[in-house]
Amino acid sequence: MTNTYRRLRTEMEPFLKGMNRKLKSSRYLSPNQIETFGLEVQSELNVYKEDEQLHGFFVIIDFIYEQAQQDGKWSSLERRLNPFFDTVTHYVYTASFSKSKKLKARFAKMLGTYVVQSMRDNDAPYARLFSAYMKTFSADQIDKLDHYFIGQDMHNASRSFCIAISYFYLYIGKESQAMVLLKQASPVLASEAEAHIALLTQRERYEQVLRWFDTFFPNKSDKLGTLQEYYDQSTSLHDSSSIQYETWDRWLKAPSFKRFKTLMSHYSTKQKELVLDYLLPHLEERLFNEANKLVYIQILLEKEDFERIQRYFLLNEANPLELHEQKQLLLQRLAEARPELSLPVYHQFIIRLAEKRSRKYYVEAAEYVDKLAFIYRRLNEPHRYNQFKQILLKRYQSYRAFIEELKRRESNINMDS
Q1: Whole-model pTM?
Q2: Where do the structural domains in the chain lie, given as residue ranges?
Q3: Which of 4, 40, 78, 276 measures 20 to 30 Å from 86, CA to CA?
Q4: CA–CA separation, 164 and 170 (whole Å)
Q5: Could you tell me the CA-to-CA distances from 189 to 83, 96, 132, 194, 359 in Å, in that order?
Q6: Average pLDDT estimate for 163-182
Q7: 94-143 residue pLDDT tens
Q8: 3-state secondary structure of 25
Q9: DSSP states of 277-289 as a string?
């Protein structure tokens, strides 16, 4: 609990107590009443600075929830308070948090923190609010939350936490972790798994949908309710020769391109796409191994996933001087097929080589400058090459040997031809 939080809790106490009385004063609150209360909260927070509004929001949610629990009345108030929490969050997020990149990032971080801190409390509203707003978070915020959750012990987490965070994992593509966490909430109701199943269906992960049904609803004679449509759709669209993911899990322990080709030869085009969607993220986690890198780039070369090829070079090849023949071939293919995507790779390689401060590396860097000139010529953008070249000469003007090597080659590069 921060000093700001404590101060705001004290300053806002009259408002908090008044709002708490209003929420408890009637057996039923109409949607209009709840909206009115939401606007009152927004008005109360508007007198504070942006960052204080964020803390104040959590002060209000905390106070109202804690009072209901302390009075032993949560079960009777839940159907009133959860819509109130939803409305307050909607008004404050829409009017304030979503309009400030900094505040939006802070909201994501703080909400994630509250979710973890209350993970053993099944009634706490934070997991449900997290599920409602996580799709509005940026990729960077999602990535940070993922790293934050990795360090948490979730073994004794509540059902509401497991359901919410398993959906988060599914949303970011961590299907195995999503299933493991949802198992902790078993038995799962159809309504609790509907968002998960809907997301898998939306992504055309029909094989996975059927696996989830086998795991969480093994007795198909039971009424599946709203899930029945998803089950029927996945069954009808799933290819008759199902993908054996266990086989690919074993393959991942010792990747081999030859075996990859053999296994893939039996699949339809759709199945091949499903396998690659499953394999590549797992293989990317294993790129610390050179043998795995070579298998990965052979797959990329065959698949011609040029965005992934660019990302591979930018993130995984620190020393351009030691590029394996297959990697050189991959980079060449990228430059030929998608020259615009290859530019950041060549820029990065040139900088990395120049920074080595050795003639051997200067020569290689100059070679990449020559290749870069050719790519810019193909793109008919000589001015961009000239801009980069001038920046390079200025940045490394004290690297005499490198500058000499670049100037020695200038006569061979005619950007006007």
Answers
A1: 0.57
A2: 3-173, 186-238, 242-303, 313-417
A3: 4
A4: 10
A5: 21, 35, 19, 9, 67
A6: 96
A7: 988 888 899 999 999 999 999 999 999 999 999 999 999 999 999 999 99
A8: coil
A9: HHHHHHHHTTTTS
